[in-house]
Target: UvrD-like helicase ATP-binding domain-containing protein
Amino acid sequence: MTTHPALDDEQQQLDRSYAFLSDDAPDLPPLFGRVDDAGGSRYVGRADVRDEDGDTVVVAWHAPEAGAFYQACATDPGGVTLKRVVTVSGRQVIALHDEIAGGAAGDVSPSRDQRPVVGKVVVAALEQFRTGAIADATATLRPEQYAIIREPGPGILVIQGGPGTGKTITALHRAAWLAANDDGARAGGLLVVVPNATLRAYVGDVLPRLGAAAVTADVASLYEGPAQLRGRDARPEAARVKGSAVMAMVLRRLVESADRPGETPEELLRGLYGDPALLERLADDLLKAGQRDVLYREPAGSADDEPWTVDDLVLLDELAHLLGRPARRYGHAVVDEAQNLSPMQARAIARRSRDVTLAGDLDCSTGPGKHDDWSELTGYFGSESREVTLSLGYRVPRPVVELSRRQLAGGGVLEVADSLRDGLGTPLVRRVDPGDEAAVAISAGEAAAGTGFKVGVVVAPSRYDETLRYCQSAGIKAGDGREGDLGQAVTLLPADLVNGLEFDAVALVEPAEIGDGTELGRRLLYVAMTRCTQSLAIFHATALPAGMEHLERPAEPREPEVEHRPRPARTEDLVDLFKLLRDDDRMLVEVLIRRLLRDSLERED
Ligand SMILES: Nc1ncnc2c1ncn2[C@@H]1O[C@H](COP(=O)(O)OP(=O)(O)OP(=O)(O)O)[C@@H](O)[C@H]1O
Model:
């Protein structure tokens, strides 16, 4: 095993940096990188560290002095002579990766398949098992991500890119960068909005780790009144109508027509939903009869008992505004998965800040309304917007990218992202007996989880409750993803809540139920398929949906009939042997091979 010659020197620098941290400093390493150029040598970390004389020991990643660390790369070192990532574990420097050494490419990935050459440390970061929280990337941000992070704060910036191209991680670093550097964000505060509590749990660590002062909210929690999220609209049409822009006018008329002064938003909205005649009077020219019908809801015993949905809460927020209760304003808002914003949701965010960063992918719209162009959303914030695109894939293995793209009508809005990952090869497809789909998927998921994988088992929303009950009754410890429990080795998720998440392996249950032939269904399927970093397995009892039909195979016999299998001609031909394995065994063996390969690579290092 070879050790980097500078390991001891960097350990000394790390010890020195720890010595100047205040006692209540979080147990995160004070530095993760070093850059040398004509300006000298600087260490880069999450925050500034100074010695007793006030001299800089470590510069914060968001300080201008750290710029060269992020702007230089192996293929374009500029004037940088050393770009080093320092990996620390338990206060010990355990590895050094020099992407640039002596002013030229150093420890980098091999150049192949027209893939960009990146530091090996990026590849190593991608090879880590997922943890249930978004992976840390502050030490390995790429120049194109850093450039977006530092775009000026005022105005509207759209960060788009295919699945896994780093939109979320870039947007969150941008939030932290603006919190530190942008006058507006510093003075007015910074708001980060994600679509739901599940994604909030997934990304919740990033800003505190970066020491950034920001308020993180999910869309439902923007409303600060007494109503809480308690329900979901079973019919997408109801959510679509509630989210549509005409509701702003309907609510304005509602407030103007209210005859009892002092009514709360909750009382007004309950009254509107429960009174078809009132709705007709107010919205006859704005909503068709069928659209008004889907809004009808028998009032619950009290406002507290109402099954308020996310779109109801957004309407309550609009009502609060109309009743003269202004929302808290911020200097800048960063919105993740922004493609799913409804017009009413966009209005709610615009009331809080007109300077926004919207990160998203129009192909991944899984909200009730689809936007064909970003201008349909940016118009709620202002007239001028800038769009930037990330095009290097950090998550989805190439074969999965290829398969998933078949779900997109017309091939999708964006170019196919160039993925850094091969993963574990072509997706596995297994036909099972009707009724067994979820159980088989979960047991394959448990097998993969047994080797260290984080596994997401994705089902159609209509199948979620039944599958969760099955897990509970069978004593299977699967996380309830709908409740934001992403900490278990296996997490169960409905397909409409997987936007933004990432797992080592995804087991997809009965894709035809998710991609039910509608455009929304195909996009749900696309998003679900693109959540894995290593392997995708598909379990189905009915015919596979369009875009997957070529994977259809006859049902396998329950017990493999070994004697009928052709014997491999040569015992050393492992690939043939491998192909004979049942799909779930194959998944397991693939995981084990990968682990062995990684262990042996680590030993070589
Ligand atoms: N420069 C980088 N170095 C290391 N890891 C990175 C880098 N950029 C992104 N990643 C990792 O790639 C994964 C995908 O990133 P992210 O979730 O931000 O993508 P996304 O574009 O928001 O995906 P989606 O929209 O499909 O959810 C994450 O684990 C993230 O930490």
Confidence is low (pLDDT under 50) at residues 560-569.
